[in-house]
Amino acid sequence: MKKFDYMEEFKHEQLIYFYDKTTGLKGITCIHDTSLGPALGGTRLWEYEDEEEAVLDVLRLSKGMTYKAACAGLNLGGGKTVLIGDSKKVKSEGYFRGLGRYVQSLNGRYITAEDVNTSTTDMMYVAMETDYVVGLPGKSGNPSPVTAWGAFMGIRASLKEVFGSESFQGKSFAVQGAGQTGYYLIKFLLGDYSDVNNWKKYNEKPKKIYFTEINEAHIERLKKEYPEVEFVKPEDIYGLDVDVFVPCALGGVINDTTISKLKAKIVAGTANNVLKEAKHGELLKEKGILYGPDYIMNAGGLINVAHELQGYNFETAMSDVDKIYGRLLEIYAIAKAENISVSSAGDKFAEKRIEIMRNVRANFIKR
Ligand code: NAD
């Protein structure tokens, strides 16, 4: 892989390799863009096939974080760290303290957090060696209910766009995945807001919620707690006659095979990389299906954790998460005015904010 060619094409700032001989820590941090502020993004631990796969992942993920933070209205840039290893074997105090030291060496240009296969407990070790880590126990807490809340706000904006009313009264939903985020999202649709301290309450009732899952424990949990939510087999979730398809499991679920099955008017959930390829955003538009861009829909967790940087306050953080509603409507308006897909409109929205802030801060002011 020609790393500099890739960095030049997608405007990455910095790619850093690190290794610790005592613990076998092997990682790569990528800082995509710091025009808005320090790059923030979690640390993912994964058994990559080879180094090339890890590099490509960190380059892509860090760029995604730039767009996500920009659209979320945060003064943060995009970055990410990937660690190469088997999460069942490599984890130890030394391993994560080693990571903390490398994060500290970047002197605040990059702030890390938990991600796939790393936990808030692991981050406590990281925090012993660096000031640049967020998502610690006892601070902003579990990000998943807040991510689900942000997506819930995004679904309300999407309903408003398509049906003229944001209410989910009488609407039907097909939720794919009832794990960390899908489960909370279903609870919100059913009127249980306890996981966000009853931040807001809506006296609205959906007509029907279907869900699919592959994890038996998650299936049983929902069946037991909410028997009115109907389970369907994973392959049947796409073709249901519902208003909203809510992806909360995997990436790439909107693809050549699934698009033709969809009857929903809206695709909006918490999952990352919902569209298999960019062309699938165009295809949804052609089919008259509104797509809530994933990195805007699922920014709630990021917004919440970013509030740790200014001293965490639940009300302030949730007020910022609520802004996903207005931001999506703004992006839908751009898509309509310019006759482009909403994913392209989301990208434009992010790039415009980065450009404006870069220029606004270009003049010299003595402080
Ligand atoms: P999770 O692993 O807790 O839940 C995903 C669920 O999907 C699991 O229960 C899994 O069994 C199920 N699943 C997997 N494959 C499936 C299939 N083929 N059909 C049906 N169900 C299937 O993960 P999560 O934290 O809820 O994250 C879900 C998505 O949201 C991911 O794409 C993640 O990157 C994204 N996301 C999560 C957060 C967060 O705060 N947790 C933040 C931003 C984005």
Secondary structure blueprint with pairings:
Elements: H1 3-10, E1 14-19, E2 26-33, E3 39-40, E4 43-46, H2 51-71, E5 77-84, H3 87-90, H4 93-105, E6 110-111, H5 120-127, H6 143-163, E7 172-176, H7 182-189, E8 208-212, H8 216-225, E9 230-231, E10 244-247, H9 256-259, E11 266-267, H10 279-286, E12 290-291, H11 294-297, H12 300-306, H13 314-322, H14 324-338, H15 342-360
Parallel strand pairs: 3-5, 3-6, 4-5, 7-8, 7-10, 8-9, 10-11, 11-12
Antiparallel strand pairs: 1-2, 2-5
Bound molecules: nicotinamide-adenine-dinucleotide.
In words, what does this structure look like?
This protein folds into two domains: 3-65 and 76-127, 3-Layer(aba) Sandwich (Rossmann fold); 144-352, NAD(P)-binding Rossmann-like Domain (Rossmann fold), CATH 3.40.50.720. Strands 1, 2, 3, 4, 5 and 6 form a six-stranded mixed sheet that branches. Helix 4 packs across helix 5 (120-127) and helix 12 (300-306) packs antiparallel against helix 13. By secondary structure, it is an alpha/beta fold. It is built from 15 helices and twelve strands. The model has no long low-confidence stretch (mean pLDDT 96). The protein has helices at 3-10, 51-71, 87-90, 93-105, 120-127, 143-163, 182-189, 216-225, 256-259, 279-286, 294-297, 300-306, 314-322, 324-338, 342-360; strands spanning 14-19, 26-33, 39-40, 43-46, 77-84, 110-111, 172-176, 208-212, 230-231, 244-247, 266-267, 290-291. The chain is globular. The structure holds nicotinamide-adenine-dinucleotide (NAD). Nicotinamide-adenine-dinucleotide binds at residues 143-144, 147, 176-182, 212-215, 218, 234, 248-251, 270-272, 298, 301.
